[in-house]
Amino acid sequence: MIIPRVILFIVFLVACVQYATAQEMQKISSDRIVAFSSDMIGQISGLTFADSLIYATEGRSGQVHVFDHNLNQIFSFGQTGRGPGDLSWPSYIMEKDGKIYVEEGRALRLSIFSMNGDFINNILLKKRALRFYIFNNSLFGFDRSSQNPFYIFNLEDESIVEFGDRYNPNNSSNRYELAARNQYYFQGIETGKILIVNETSGNFYNIHLSDKPEIIKINTEISDPYFLNRLQYVENYFNSTSLQQLSWPLLITDLQVCNNTESVYLAYVGQDHESIHQNMLLLLSYKNDQLTQTKSYSFENRLFNKFALTNDCSSIFFYDQVEGKLVKYALDN
């Protein structure tokens, strides 16, 4: 069924042209680059900004590379292996209370280090933590291959509470989320409250963490034309292609909350009217369980996955998949 796909793709591009003038998008050109790493590095799978430093996980080498705010590499720690202090394909990484937490995909464990890279402890996990959030000596995470994708894991007594239905976190019927297979990005808003977004559908939810966690869908007002037409493009694919044949485009790539404030940043892969794949960034205001778009950015011919923000959210860091380097851009907020 090649012809229907081509027609849908053309319709999508035409729609992008029609909507391009509906809203002004701020283009972040290369002259907004503040710094970039001097040497090419391997594929980065996780980033976090803590104490004016960037911590980046590199899965193949089993290392965490540490850079200053100007992206000068200071030191690295870890090595491939399964012993204490080793890292077996490290992925997601975050800082909490002066400690660095690293999830190891192939070892099913969480490794804890000091800010200087000194090994502290390993904690064996009962489920994958494709992304996680540390709070009150517990880990909130999700495993998209599980019947109950979301869970709370107590880091002290190792008890676990699983919740959420496979594919549909709020028990609603949504074909986009079914096909996305539980791929979510999330960030802690405050202790006991998580903001999550589905990668394909773009639906947002709040999770209230308690003995009986509650998942609530929240309202959104997003006017960005590329984002909306990307959703329409996916919907057209679902209407014309079976799930077995579907190879939908990656939509959302990361979600970050600005220092637990009312600002939420959402990155996704889009296309402009010249059919150039590049990353877009949405700035959303989060008030009273309502998300409203306030600004949108595009980056010139840049492709990135995970990103990190400075504490004041005046700059963004990401791994440029084309150049193989870390890049720091100034944002005009």
How would you describe what is shown here?
The protein has helices at 2-20, 175-180, 225-240; strands at 26-28, 33-36, 44-50, 53-58, 63-68, 73-77, 90-96, 99-104, 109-114, 119-124, 132-135, 138-142, 150-154, 160-163, 184-190, 193-198, 204-208, 214-217, 219-221, 252-257, 263-271, 277-287, 290-299, 307-309, 315-320, 325-330. It is mostly beta strands. The protein has a domain at 2-36 and 167-330. A hairpin with a 4-residue loop joins strand 4 and strand 5. Helix 1 packs antiparallel against helix 3 (225-240).
Total number of helical segments?
Answer: 3
Distance between the first and last residues' Cα: 45 Å
Provide the structure class: mainly beta
Tell me about the biggest sheet? Answer: 6 strands, mixed
Q: Work out the helicity level.
A: 10-25%
> How confident overall, as mean pLDDT?
81
- Quaternary: single chain
- The radius of gyration is 20 Å
Number of strands: 26
Low-confidence stretches: 5-23, 243-248
Approximately how much beta-strand content do the residues carry? over 45%
Q: What is the approximate shape?
A: globular
How would you spell out the order of helices and strands?
A: HEEEEEEEEEEEEEEHEEEEEHEEEEEEE
Topology of helices and strands:
Blueprint: H1 2-20, E1 26-28, E2 33-36, E3 44-50, E4 53-58, E5 63-68, E6 73-77, E7 90-96, E8 99-104, E9 109-114, E10 119-124, E11 132-135, E12 138-142, E13 150-154, E14 160-163, H2 175-180, E15 184-190, E16 193-198, E17 204-208, E18 214-217, E19 219-221, H3 225-240, E20 252-257, E21 263-271, E22 277-287, E23 290-299, E24 307-309, E25 315-320, E26 325-330
Parallel strand pairs: 1-23, 19-23
Antiparallel strand pairs: 2-26, 3-4, 4-5, 5-6, 7-8, 8-9, 9-10, 11-12, 12-13, 13-14, 15-16, 16-17, 17-18, 20-21, 21-22, 22-23, 24-25, 25-26
Helix pairs in contact: 1-3
